[in-house]
Amino acid sequence: MVALIVIAVVVVFALVVAARTIRVIPQARAGVVERLGRYSRTLEPGLTIVTPFIDRVKPLVDLREQVVNFAPQSVITEDNVVVGIETVLYFTITDPRSATYEIANPLQAIEQLTVTTLRNVIGGLSLEATLTARENVNTELRVVLDEATGKWGIRINRVEIKSVDPPADIRTAMEKQMRAERDRRAAILTAEGEKQAQILTAEGEQQAAVLTAEGARQAAILRAEGEAKAIDTVFKAIHAGKPSRELLSYEYLQMLPQLAEGDSNKVFVIPSEFAEAFGGIGEALARGAGRDKPE
Hints:
The chain is α+β, with helices and mostly antiparallel strands. It is about 60% helix and about 20% strand. The chain contains nine helices and nine strands. Strands 2, 3, 5 and 6 form a four-stranded antiparallel beta sheet that branches. A hairpin with a 5-residue loop joins β7 (about 65-75) and β8. α3 crosses α5 and α7 (about 245-255) crosses α9.
């Protein structure tokens, strides 16, 4: 019985020794080993062996990029406006030994350093610059923080201003200003649109008038050309037919009713040409009567 107890104790002791001797470090982790209370080495990911009861492995250090969101901080701008600024910080531990022994509480130290740096940077900017120049503020914060945390084995990858909250009265004034600016731009765009519409309408009317005048001109030209051709055709036809004086007199008389047409013709004047026409007709009738008498 005693022998079984001794064997059991030996087995348990061997298991404990083996557990304290063989350590497996996961990927993206690092282990700091202390030998008799002093720094000995840093364990890399993989299987490693340490001396039990002499070496002690401190809690593993996470080497992945970490994100920490800091609560909003009240900061006074250059134009004496108190704003609440919320920041987000991305950092990576690059030296596990320095992160373990150079700083007691890295996150608290980074937060306080961020607040101090943020107040120094924002204190030199106006509210408008703070709202519009976030990228410059982020860059300046990252440079200052990275320089200060370098000795702690921590690299600041990025600092982002998550939100900037001015006081309620300032927000109301800014909203009114933005609304007035939008109304002004809308009025300008409306006026510009009306102006362009009037210009296009005037140009359209001008082009329509030009086209109408051009059409009337072309119609007049074509009408005149047609009348000229008609007159020329009639003139040639008359000369080709060699009309007698009596025929011309008769045609002259045929035009007489057309000259009398119209309500405004109160007085009718017979030109001398009509007298000659009557005379010609009379002579023609006399000659015709003479031919008709029997011999």
